[in-house]
Structure of D-alanyl-D-alanine carboxypeptidase/D-alanyl-D-alanine-endopeptidase:
Amino acid sequence: MTKTTGTDPWPDRIRRGVMSGGERARRTWPQAVLIALLVVLAIPAVLLVAPGFLGPEPPAPPPAAPEWQQAPATLSPQQGLRALDASAAVPSRESLTAQVDPLLKADGGGGFTGIVQDALTGQVLFDRAASEGRVPASNMKLLTAVAALRALGPEHRFSTTVTSGPAAGQVVLRGGGDVLLGPGESDAERVLGHAGLATLAARTVEGLQARGTTGEVKVLVDDSLFTGPALNPAWQEGDVAAGEVAPLYPLALNSARFDPAVTTGPRPQDSAITAAQEFASRLREAGAAAGLTVAAGVERSPGAAQGGVDGGSGADPAVLAEVESATVAQQVDLMLRDSDNYLAEALGRLAALATGQPGSNDGAAAAVRAQVAAAGIPADSMKLVDVCGLAMGNQVSARQFAEVVRAMTAGTDARLREALDGFPVAGLTGTLDTRYGEGATAGGAGLVRAKTGTLNTVLALSGYVVDADGRLLVFSFIGNGLTPGAAGNKVALDRAATALAACGCS
């Protein structure tokens, strides 16, 4: 029996055990420290070696994009204004003007005109000489969009065909207005390259085989759809040399670019011949297995000057193959988003042809003005000398542009609503993708949607935005006589549009 001493609650055996444990701990702690140190040192080595056995760690999922980086779907063509709350407060003119007016300051010479309207009612909330005609630069494309969508229809497509030629052993590549042809296979998921020349060549071979054609084939091209000068005399030679635009033909590869990824620099000066040469090359490849050869070189069809591919005989040539473009609505979106001058001019001429006017520079300008007026927008004071906005002779007011944007957002004409998806989104897409990144404009990123315009001394921005109270506003700001290269002028436009997005100005 274990003895206890006094009031000590610990039995002798337990006490001895605790004491002996303490003594053992004192004797063994240096070894324990050493082992712990070795373990600590070994961990990094294990971490370095382990991936070789276990494989790399899966990457962490990317963080969710902030809300402002989500492209707004509030005004999709299908929804129009129905997605917005019509009871949202309308900003007061005094409050909104106090926000916007100080921001529209020209950096150097020149100055800005502008207007802001309530999209639903048309109420003017800001007006600085908004009825004054101004050089609009590429805001002109908003008018061309109206004309193309009204005259041609959003779902219309342009056909590029191959027909039998005026003589045996000839085929004719006929331009039907598609300037977005691709060199390869047709791609239904794309706008640029929706119709491909490789696909057209393969179908042509099938058509020739069905007719029993063998031997050598000569490629001709018919580009007679457009008339008048291929270059607008209102364009400056320097702009043409720099590749801002090129001579207009009713068929072109990559919107008359050598490479669709290179959107600056010289362009093909004869896009019809360039496209025909590419087609001949593709036909040569496709026809080799079928016993067909293709003669070197391409020529214009002798019937082209006489308005047809049959030498003026009046007989309809046999259609061997055909490819179709993307829809007019899709092309309008591309034109607005990338501010494509060549595409705008082609759509203007095609709108002219659809309304019985010549497919020329003058015909395009007349058709655009007529269609804008037919859409209910006063156009008598407009002066249009081209339809892409490259010419300095154009005169359109900020008020007229705001009314165009209102017509697109209103939804009363479903055709015009199709243009909404083409507006560049601030900080995200098209010609606004690199803007709205600084502190004073970041609040407008992802919210402002607007068509840009830029010439040497001209800047413009026209579009729409939903303000902080949920009210849809349309706006147009145009600067003329500006100091070339003054970066502050673009910032002034962007700050004014950002102020609208942030406005709780009721």
